[in-house]
Write a structure and sequence with these properties.
The structure is a single chain. The protein is of the alpha+beta class. Strands 1-2-3-4-5-9 form a six-stranded antiparallel β-sheet, with helices on one face. Strand 3 and strand 4 form a beta hairpin. It is globular. The model has no long low-confidence stretch (mean pLDDT 91).
């Protein structure tokens, strides 16, 4: 895990590794003056995420306790949803394009 600071006085945390034998990564961006962060999980962007929800969101997303489904035509073609407490947190977009094809995404599409 790598922690750092941003040019604007914020902070960041990066991690890359494996969950269940599948390569995954995440990055968190925040600022000490704000109680929310941007969370990026394998190209999926969640923002804003309350800091008290960030850990649960990461654990659930990375371990497969999330739902990947088709979005609405003309908008986001895919949506990633994670339930944290009683709240459904939905991604704000995905970097890259096309059909989800990473091993992690395929496990979300076809849970065992």
């Amino acid at each position: 895990m790598t922690a750092g600071t941003t040019e604007a006085g914020g902070w960041s945390i990066d991690w890359e590794g494996q969950c269940g034998g599948i390569p995954v990564w995440f990055t968190l961006y925040g600022h000490r003056a704000v109680s929310t962060a941007e969370v990026r999980v394998n190209d999926w962007v969640f923002s804003p995420v309350r800091l008290d929800q960030a850990e649960d969101l990461l654990v659930k997303a990375l371990t497969g306790d999330a739902t990947l489904r088709r979005g609405m035509a003309g908008l986001a073609p895919w949506r990633l949803e994670v339930i944290v407490g009683e709240e459904v947190i939905t991604d704000n977009g995905r970097e890259g394009s096309g059909r989800p094809d990473s091993e992690w995404e395929l496990r979300l599409l076809h849970p065992r």
